[in-house]
Amino acid sequence: MRKILVILALITVLPLSALAQEPGSGGPVIEANISGNANIGSFNLLRCSGTDCARIGQFLFPGLVGVNPETGDFASAEQFPSTALALRWEISEDGKEYTFYMRDDAFWSDGNPITANDVKFSFDAIASGEIESDLSGYVDAFVQSVEVIDDYTVKFTFGEASCDALSLAGAVYPLPSQYFGGDFTKMVDPEFDRSPAVTGGIFNFGRFDGDQIVLTANPNAWGVINDVVIPEGFIYVDVPDTTVAVERLLSGEINFLDGPERQRRQELIDSPDVQTFEFPANGWNYIGLNLADPTNPQNGLDEDGNPIDQGHHPILGDVQVRRALQLAMNVQEMIDIVSLGQGVQMAANEIPSSWAISPDLQPIPHDPDAAAAMLDEAGWVLGDDGVRVCQGCEYAEEGTPLRFALLVPDGSVNAERIALLFQDQLKAVGVEVDVQILDFNTVVSQITGQTFDAVLLAWSNGYPVNPDVAQIFNASADVVGAGFNFTSYRNPDMEALNEQARVLPGCDPAERAALYWQVQETLQNDQPYLWLYTANDMYAARAEVEGFSPFANQPFWNVETWQIDQPR
Amino acid sequence: MLRFILRRILQAIPTLFGISFLSFAIMTAAPGGPTAAMKLDPHLTVKQREAAADRLGVNDPFFVQYIRWLIGDDWKTYETVDNDGNVVREKGENKGILRGDFGRSFTYKMPVVDLIKEKLQPTAELGLLSLLVGFGLGVPIGILSALNQGGKFDNLTRVVAVVFNALPAFYMGLLLILVFGSYLELLPMGNRCPISVSGECSLTDRAERLILPVFTIATGFIAVLSRYARAATLDVLNQDYVRTARAKGLHSRQITFRHVGRNMLIPIVTLLGPSIPGILGGAVVVERIFSWQGLGRLALEAVTTQDYPVVMAFVMFGGVSTVIGYLLSDIMYALVDPRISLDAGAGRS
Q1: Contact, A313 vs A395, CB < 8 A?
Q2: Contact B174 A243 (CB under 8 A)
Q3: Which pTM does this prediction carry?
């Protein structure tokens, strides 16, 4: 169905080509930047850290590997027409070598062709450690070498066969090596960081004057639909207050908004001046539970990779208690109250829009009676004051009340509301939750130090979604003070399934997905997290934006075709 | 006067040192640290996070960090081991605040001075104009209220002052945007210049974008100053010399401007000093609502991300502007009140 939609969307823009549109003849796309962080240090995608510079950088620098917006998976330019540089790729038999065949019609804004040398230049820059890139550890650890075969062929060699290879190769954005004279140390250049003079995307860099980042249509853009960029430009304007952003969209001062405030969404849906698109977001909320002894934090593995005895959390170390807590929670009530019904309950760790989500695994339903029975069975009986106490429980001392602290980072009203609902819902089954709203850095210190009981947090997935859970659930990531497996969860079977999916020969998505379904099932059963929900996101555009037909996480896949009346 | 100013500047030096030491100690003692947020970034390895902390120098003991911030480290050579096991010697790059180097922002990887320069103009524009409007409207309103004590104007301004004082800046700003920007469509809702690809921005464009944010900040000043000015005017009106002037048959305008106006200003100028550093505090909320990229928002962001060099630059900026603000107050005291001399030893007569 979606494929048909993409084709229809492409067909609808075809008549525009018949009109022989001039480049930049439409009005500019004006997006409100509601992140509040308009101080961008670098537009250079190798040096950028944060989502705002990436938002702009995607229009300036072409990627080696593209994305099919319909499936949310990596795609070459032959598989889905886009400005991706790779027309196709070949994978060696051992799965370690990827040879990318690049298009020869791609040019930098100074007229030089974009070649395999530019890809290698970027890789060398990251690998050198000279340019302070967030990608350095990421690429260093997995990419062994990048070799130029000819001007338009480049070979990546990875240390191991991994289905993450495309994601890793895609992170290496080519930069104009000729601009830096082939010397990547010159990339540490405030001038290029803040005002890149040579780019290769659908837009050229215009200016950055504090509150407005202005890009202009690239008159020589290549690989774009109908061979022309219709919008005059793209303006990313700083509007940190979400209420004001909605007002400015309604008034026509801006014409695109990503993530309007939840309370105003129905108003936008009902407005004849606005078109909207709602979808499950990439982030998901969870309550992480410390399974190990919080009084004596230990790493999951020793230096030789052998498991270390981490003890048990007196309450949350018992899987039966964790399952009971999930049953006691009414996640739909949280969605209804906190996110005004705009969200989807999670069955486990996979978001609804992921290609790897299990079609059969259902979210655990709210069942307080079953939760109470399970707690009774686990040796936690109801006390006189309505709080359960240990009588024959697995790990706590006799008489210990069923009480634990939930850490909540401050600054999010929604998180605080979820925490208070959680507290109420658990109280109904005799569990006392001490909600502690603390400074974010304090929370981070406590959870990575593994001295906490439970924490309310959210993960934000990358795009395209990588279903690998090694970083958050493998024992090797259970490192006191540093690792993301701060719950000290350990399940060798789950790790084996996850690893099998990561290195599966041929990387067939269907086969990999089936393995990830088992991972999700295991995680749901073992319950290192209490699974909450993913809130819906929304794109909103003014009615006069013709061509607006987004997919989840891909609002701008056809931005070059957008025809916009000039703003007032 | 010059000697007085010099003396005050010399007196300020130990104060500023004290401020810097205490602030640095509190800042570095705060939980988390600048690399705390990195701990939840799955793209970064443990080694990378440790390297980042080492590079920023935030793992060093407090005194080492403080001294480096103060006098720099360009006199020191660091030894590191590269990937091939070779020892690499590199000289430090910081000159220290005593030589005018505020360091580089951890977040933006650029010199703090450049960052502040970029953001200073919008905040100064907003703050100084708000101060001007606040004093320009607040003081005359206060005088008029006092001259019409108990009248309709006095009662009206009292109510307005209470409302202006009670409404928080963020609420007032949103209200103004809704009324003048959204419903009446008379004024733009934010930013310093029109949103356009061309970047054209005339003086009129700039001026109309200043009206709402300036008024939002100025309401607080107007409310406070009008009440102060009213009280000060009433006090002066009851002085013997005003009664004498009236008895001499001087025209009321002459009495108001020559005798009342000048004398009631004496307590008002004391408010000018604290108002100058206060501009930054007021700007934080207003800059956010009206989409201004100014110092207020930079300061707030630096505090939340624990960007030490930027936070310390703001602490020093606040300290210095407070010193300058009070110095200005003292100088203006002498200007409006001839009984006060700033020359050494003269004191108050």
Answers
A1: yes
A2: yes
A3: 0.84
